[in-house]
Design goal:
The chain is α/β, with parallel strands linked by helices. The chain has one domain: Rossmann fold (3-Layer(aba) Sandwich), CATH 3.40.50. The chain is built from 10 helices and 8 strands. The protein has an 8-stranded mixed sheet with strand order 3-4-2-5-1-6-7-8, with helices on both faces. The radius of gyration is 19 Å and the shape is globular. The two termini are about 35 Å apart. About 45% of the residues are buried.
Length: about 270
């Protein structure tokens, strides 16, 4: 089980829509954490159309900080999404609350990584990079960091610097493959190959441009006909499969490297 953290370099490329869409099409239990520091929950105001009020949020987790960690507090704060395998930890209601979460990110990252023992994946909506209160420890702890971007020149210009920074951070920890580029609307106007050339990193997966289907997740709109077989939903399913496979390969490689190192140490002894 793994931790996937979604973020963006600028603008509104659809991080929250992608996070919820991936969670809703995930084949096994998944926890969706709304860690965007801008506040004003996009999930509650968008997908739930302001009709759902969670009894707890990330702020409550911050109040529950304890030396033993947050393992027991997270399930208590999470809200189950009816008819799905998704549970949600709602974010802050105002951007000013992000400052109260500064001390939360490190212990939260530790607890989220331990959730694999419960058979549960984690998807984190980290919002836009570089904002005050940004959950950087969650990015650092991710098995996969997904940089979501549109495919126009403005988006690529904004993503170029952050892509280089994130790649350097993951390379420094020996996990260069942890950074994934997710292109929203490939071919509008640039292709995955052109994006890879500009950002000097391959596009891991792409999401189809389908405003009506996306609005089901972003604004709680009624599902259009053939929604489940729409290009957007199919692209979310393919993206999830690709990301899970990529993380699994990386973990297998790390396990193999550790086993080889252990065998070499024993032979020298």
């Amino acid at each position: 089980m793994s931790v996937f953290v979604l973020c963006s370099a600028a603008g509104s490329p659809g991080v929250t829509t992608t996070a919820l869409g991936l969670a809703m099409t995930w084949p096994r239990p998944v926890l969706l954490v709304e860690a965007d520091p801008t506040g004003g929950s996009a999930l509650l105001a968008g997908h739930f159309r302001g009709q759902v009020q969670p009894t707890a949020s990330l702020v409550d987790l911050a109040l529950e900080l304890h030396p033993s960690g947050l393992d027991d507090a997270i399930p208590a704060v999470a809200m189950n999404l009816p008819g799905s395998k998704v549970s949600i930890v709602a974010g802050t209601r105002a951007h000013g609350q992000a400052r109260a979460l500064t001390s939360l990110w490190e212990p939260l990252a530790t607890s989220l990584r331990r959730m694999d023992a419960l058979g549960q994946d984690v998807i984190v909506d980290a919002g836009r990079l570089g904002l005050a209160g940004s959950p950087e420890p969650l990015l650092a702890a991710a098995d996969a960091c997904l940089l979501i971007l549109r495919t126009d020149l403005v988006a690529l210009a904004a993503a170029r610097s952050w892509c280089s920074t994130l790649a350097g951070q993951f390379e420094a920890r020996g996990d260069a493959r942890a950074l994934s580029l997710v292109a929203v609307g490939e071919g509008r106007p640039y292709s995955a190959r052109e994006i890879a050339k500009v950002l000097e990193r391959p596009v891991t997966t792409s999401l189809a441009w389908d405003e009506k289907a996306a609005a089901v997740f972003s604004r709680g709109e009624p599902r259009p006909r053939r929604f489940e077989t729409s290009g957007f939903v199919r692209s979310l399913q393919r993206a999830g499969e690709s990301l899970r496979a990529s993380v699994a390969r990386a973990k297998d490689d790390l396990t193999g490297q550790a086993a080889s190192a252990g065998a070499l140490t024993r032979s020298r002894a």
